[in-house]
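Q: What would this complex look like in 3D?
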Amino acid sequence: MIFHDQITSPVNLVDGVGIAIRRYSNNQNHIAILFKERENEELVRIIHVGSYKGEFIGEVDKYYLWADLNWIHPIRKQALLASIQQIADVNRDTTLRYGFNHSVFCFDPDTGRLNANYDQTKGFTCSTFVLEVFLANGITLIDWETWPEADEADREFQNLVLNYLLNQIGNITEEYLNAQRQQLGGPRFKPQEIAVASQTMHKTTWDEAQEPAGNLNHQLTQRQAAS
Amino acid sequence: MTHLIQSPFQNKKNSVVAVLIANTLVFSPYVAAIEETEYLLDTEFLFERSVPSISPKKDRTLVKRVSNQIDWLVSFYESASTAALAKDVYPVVKGIRDLFSKNSYDVVDDILAELDVAKLSHTALVTFLTTTYPARNKLQNWTLAAHLVKVKLETDGLNSDDVLHGLI
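A: Here is my prediction, written as structure tokens for the whole assembly.
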């Protein structure tokens, strides 16, 4: 399982589609899906949820580590890349809400567009967004049932997010806030856990993810210290 | 039964050339699938010539192939044998999802029934399968198409379980 640093491995070496992860603040990380643009495959971008109603497509800054999806057969990977390019194209002007929902199958698997499941009460973290995109392509990265309810540290994170949402005055509805409050205490899918889950063919359990996720988190800490 | 179809290289309705398709089909199960899509001649399908047949009545029977009537699909088939990259198969993803968004599941089902596994690249075949996979329960021909793709991949020496992981 190798997560490349762009200092030694430029991101445009990605084999069409991959995973990108970076330190966001303190011990919090951010994950995104890396893909080569259709019109210019030298141009590598990310699709992600970085903030409340933030941009769907973003640039890959130098702080991201990245990894290929080597377990996916090269033939299948081209089909996956075409699918992600189409999702990027049809949702280019979409903004997504930040929140705690997961496994809502919000990307219509038939059309690639956000569907009715993504209603006014739903929002994603960067992690659950990545999981959703893969779900839309028939790939289930994790064994959902093995993810535990939030522990004390997770609840602290969830409260920070809720406070962040409360500060989106004028840009957020009371209905949405109430719906997100109901999600507090639910499982937290950490970016480093989802990143390592993307590196194996089978559905990763929570237990399986912990050690490699810890190693990746350490790598991200070192990367942050070096910058 | 003699099937007459619109030429795969001709997309203009008023200049249709009849060709035999049976000899282009590699897999016999596919013949059955094609027969399910058979329609009687309508006024939009005029033949400049007919293929000799014992039964004149059968001469008027044709397979109205969806793959000859959808512009993006006609265009795609022209280079489908060499489609190896995402940019090559993107029109399939876009075209099929556009059809889904119009609830044209029957058209997609016909496209699957008419998949010419001998003329499509591996990437093209897999893209047809992966793009239609989420809607497979609405597509009667999906399972047959998946089987034919699996057989084609294995015949060509590929590990179909790896390529089609999670799909079959």
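A: To summarize the key features: Confidence is low (pLDDT under 50) at residues 1-61 of chain B. The CA atoms of residues 81 and 120 of chain B lie 4 Å apart.
Q: Very helpful, thank you.
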